[in-house]
Amino acid sequence: MTSTFRRRALASVAVAALAAGSAAGVGSFAPATSALAQALPKTPIEAPEHPPGSFAGIVNKVKPAVVAVKVKLDDSADDDGEGGPGQPNLQQVPPQLREFFKRFGQGGPNGSPQRHSERGAVGSGFIISVDGYVVTNNHVVSRAKSVQVTLDDTRTLDAKVIGTDPKTDVALLKIKDSGTYPYVQFGKSAPQVGDWVVAIGNPFGLGGTVTAGIVSARGRDIGAGPYDDFLQIDAPINKGNSGGPDFNVNGEVVGVNTAIASPSGGSVGLAFAIPAETVQAVVEQLKTDGKVVRGYLGVQIQPVTKDIADSLGLDKAKGALVNSTEAGTPAAKAGLKTGDVIEKVDGKTIDDAKELSRKIAGLKPGTKVELAYLRNGKSDTATVELGTLPTDLKNARNSDDDGFSNDGQPRLGLGLAPADAVGLGTSGVAVVRVDPEGPAAAKGIEQGDVILDVAGTSVSTPSDVAAQIKAAESNGRKAVLMRVKNSKGVTRFVAVSLSKSG
């Protein structure tokens, strides 16, 4: 065996030396050591800070604080389908992905809630205080008649629901028995993509199950709620893991498992966890008030697309465009107006409209924030004292929801007339003809729409529209931003490219 290995090694060295000699254009063999040095170049990659030798030390430290959550369902709980426990409403998930996204607090092998001796289900959770407060998912306990938690030492104890927050899918429980309990802490900083995570939970009722992986992505929006900001992890997560924690290499909670993407219902390496900073903020309010109240600006916003950025003269498509402000709201009182682009909150850059919503919702009513915004190409700031987000979001909206609109030059594919001349109102410019091949049609402008303003200036005649388009072109804009009202009275912003073709 030894001599065979040596012969093979020498043969390998000889082949490497021959290859090196040929590459150099030299007829003789290069020394073996030189050939090996060329075959094994030095790599710039350094050893990882936390080599994955074993996760046993982390697991031994935190596993006693992870619990299995057992729920007896009330009579209103559905046996199957979206909206029931373990299967929340997925209507906002893109249709092509909806069948793959599953909440998995209580799913059985076929996607239906797992049944036990009584009508019930299972999930996971973790203890966050010495007196027995437990974090889990809202969808695990939202229709619970009673709740029990099973500790790592096999004790099963009754618990009560302190409060839930459906918008983030977080729930807080309290173990009824007095005593002291092992607990874990939330991480002090957000994980980075590529960081190790260790997940512990109760998949398919198999409590105390440990899996590991990395953070695959951050900021995922899967359409599950208005404040989606999930961590994506590749640790194997399955039904029953709902509400279970993800730990970093220091044994701190960095996420709470809440959903998976899977064609079969089992793990395919696509799991989604609520970031610890979100969970911690929600839990603090649930513990104090039993409910979550969120900050409220009183604006309708939309993303800044590239076209909109071009029309506003922005270098990058960042920030949140204000579609409308409702009279009497904090934003209106602070002077924010339709067309403003909110770029920062308390000095921190806002990348998009979704981030602004999450940021404001994460603050308590009464908090004063400084908003940096852009108006007509000029930067300004406003201090806003946040109100309380209405329970019914429809009450927070104007009857006219602003969105996007387009311009009306003939080369943009629009025929225009004064709105009052065609019976479509007393202000604005009516769209009486649309070229289906024109830039305006591509942006959704339709016959019967009314253009209210162009580039922030009110218009009442086709010549007003043409003048504003010409001004935008003179300023080097690649697109022009308009506010348009449709036949239902809904207004929106639209950025239309300034085509050079006739």
From TrEMBL:
Database matches in PROSITE patterns: PDZ, TAT
Active site: 139, 169, 242
Stretch forming the signal peptide: 1-24
InterPro entries referenced in this protein's UniProt entry, alphabetically: PDZ, PDZ_sf, Pept_S1C_Do, Peptidase_S1_PA, Peptidase_S1C, TAT_signal
UniProt EC number: 3.4.21.107
Gene3D superfamilies linked: 2.30.42.10, 2.40.10.120
GO molecular function: serine-type endopeptidase activity
Cellular component terms per the entry's GO annotation: periplasmic space
Record's keyword terms, sorted: Hydrolase, Periplasm, Protease, Repeat, Serine protease, Signal, Stress response
Reaction(s) catalysed by this chain's protein: Acts on substrates that are at least partially unfolded. The cleavage site P1 residue is normally between a pair of hydrophobic residues, such as Val-|-Val
Main localization (coarse): periplasm
Residue ranges of domain PDZ in the record: 298-359, 405-460
Biological processes, Gene Ontology terms: proteolysis
Domain of life: Bacteria
Name of the top EC class for this enzyme: hydrolase
UniProt binding sites for substrate: 139, 169, 240-242
Subcellular location: Periplasm
Protein family membership: Belongs to the peptidase S1C family.
NCBIfam families: degP_htrA_DO (TIGR02037)
Protein's recorded name: Probable periplasmic serine endoprotease DegP-like
Gene name tied to this protein: dop
